[in-house]
Amino acid sequence: MTPTDLVFQSYGRCCRKDEFFVDFYDFFMASSEAIRNRFVDTDMPAQRHLLRNGVMQIILVARGMSDRKLRDLGHSHNRSNYNIQPEWYGLWEESLLKTVQVHDPEYTPELRAAWREVLKPGIDLIRGAY
Ligand code: HEM
User: Which one, 14, 64, 106, 130, has the greatest CB density within 10 A?
Assistant: First the structure.
């Protein structure tokens, strides 16, 4: 199986429970006070739902789909809009990998490597739009 197939299936297992997105934001917000501050006025149930689609977009782009929606995310996160600092994306990725480890019963170090490989182009694109 290719890395994108492994990750596509892993994400399917993770998405079976809404807890995945609750735990992701708990880890992400615990990683820095600056991150926590960014979400003080955010409707978190809606945000969890939006993130579900955002991660799926990254996986689909790694599988060859158009990156138009990721470019829109690059725009909303750039210095003129949410002003998301480039160094925060490392915390975002670590939080996601930690959440996958907790939620995917088939997690292995090889699966983690596949996730990192699949996330990289999408994260680079959004961060690169800063
Ligand atoms: C590649 C990683 C990321 C993905 C896929 C992602 C995805 C999303 C999506 C889908 C939305 C909602 C759509 C929009 O407003 O454009 C959003 C909003 C947002 N994201 Fe991200 N994001 C990422 C990284 C980050 C990072 C590192 C931060 C740092 C704090 C962040 C903070 C925010 C904030 C503050 C909002 C707006 C929340 C609100 O509406 O109150 N994101 N993100």
Answer: 14
For tokens 């210095």, what's the residue? 79
Structural domains of the chain, ranges and CATH numbers in brackets: 3-128 (1.10.490.10)
Ligand 1 contact via 30 beta carbon (within 6 Å): no
**Model confidence over 78-100: pLDDT tens digits?**
999 999 999 999 999 999 999 99
Residues 44-54: b if buried by 16+ CB within 10 A, e if exposed: eeeebeebbee
| Cα 84 to ligand 1 centre (Å) | 8
- Alpha-carbon distance of 18 to 79, in angstroms, equals 31
Question: What confidence tier does 39 reach under pLDDT thresholds 50, 70, 90?
Answer: very high
Q: Is the CB of 92 under 6 A from ligand 1?
A: yes
Q: Is the CB of 82 under 6 A from ligand 1?
A: yes
